[in-house]
Amino acid sequence: MNADVVVLGGGVIGLSAAWKLASRGLSVALVEKFSLYSGTSYVCGGMLAPNAEAKFTEPDLLKASNTSLELWSDFRNELELVSGHTIGFRDEGTLMVALERDDVYLLDHAKRQHEALGLKTEVLNAEEVREREPNLSPRMLRGMYCEDFQVEPPKLMAALIEACRKTGVHLFDECGDSELGKDFVKFKKTEISFKSVLIATGAWRVNREDAPKVKPIKGQMIVLDMPIPICEHIIRAPDAYLVPKADRLLIGATMEEVGFKRGSLAGSVMDLLVGAWEAMPSVYDLNIRELCTGYRPVGETSMPNLGPSRVDANVFYATGHGRNGVLLTPWTAEKISDHILKSF
Ligand SMILES: Cc1cc2nc3c(=O)[nH]c(=O)nc-3n(C[C@H](O)[C@H](O)[C@H](O)COP(=O)(O)OP(=O)(O)OC[C@H]3O[C@@H](n4cnc5c(N)ncnc54)[C@H](O)[C@@H]3O)c2cc1C
Description:
There is one protein chain. With 344 residues, the chain is an alpha/beta fold. 31% of the residues lie in helices and 27% in strands. It has helices spanning 12-23, 40-43, 59-83, 101-116, 126-132, 153-166, 266-279, 329-342; strands spanning 2-8, 28-31, 47-48, 94-98, 121-125, 142-146, 149-150, 170-172, 179-180, 184-187, 190-199, 215-225, 234-237, 240-244, 248-252, 288-298, 305-308, 315-319. Strands 1, 2, 8, 9, 10, 11, 17 and 18 form an 8-stranded mixed beta sheet that branches. It is elongated and about 60 Å long. Bound molecules: flavin-adenine dinucleotide. Residues 8-14, 31-34, 39-41, 44-47, 178, 200-204, 206, 219, 221, 252-253, 294, 296-297, 321-327 line the site of flavin-adenine dinucleotide.
């Protein structure tokens, strides 16, 4: 078959770019090596949280993140309309909490940093925090509220897959190893000729000399059943974060430089559970549903690699989104589809 654009990689970045390119009139095929239904984008936290994560040292990332956050509202409306799926958008925001005196200093530092960066934050005393989240530990000393958002990753992925289908993207799932030529990709018994290729393979670097350097930073997360909500906000405690979803609670996340090693270490799971339990003792009574692993695609800087290859004019990259791929999705989809459309 022929396509104007082949997208390699069916995570949130590849799918959103494929959808945008198809809705702007190009014929698009997307090739996923493993599975559209289990990768990093599928299992991650889904937080749209540039404020809680803001750092002085990453001004470009903060700017891109806030631009993307502004685009999220239209992106979400269009995605839900086209796909017919809701994506579990929530706006309760984040509560950062301090449990020890040292954490209070860190929170004060975060507050000064936020003020200097011109971000909206609200410092709360222990009583005010507990009014908002009564199940937080009585040990809690102080909190800070950030106006953040979140979506449901499996629902977001389902909506993107459906939006791709409805706009005519040809989706090829579980393709295994493929051969990438100058104007074709081959896998199993299929060959697709293309005018351009977009490489959106997350933490997996393709075998091309010009491919931007990217490495996997493994993140483990624990999923607990939560039949009755024990919190409404995203809670950022010193040693774990808690992300409430409709029927479950995510506890994350480790940061491990161990390549694509699979599995969950007992010690990491224990550290996350203790970190979450110290902030919110009622997690003790929730059933463990599953342990998840993902691989953050981390490049040489905190900014993603977006744009054309320095070698071939028909090769484009969208990789290296690190810990913010979901947040940066609308901004990335817009930018990379502009780059590709201009080349036609
Ligand atoms: C524990 C954890 C929690 C996180 N929480 C958040 C969060 O709350 N908010 C946020 O914004 N971000 C979060 N992130 C980061 C976010 O998940 C990533 O930045 C994002 O998923 C990256 O999307 P992607 O499409 O680039 O990569 P992926 O989702 O990894 O997709 C890349 C796809 O390419 C496929 N592939 C690889 N090689 C090939 C090939 N040669 N051919 C075809 N396909 C190929 C892979 O199988 C994969 O499916 C989190 C990450 C982790 C690990």
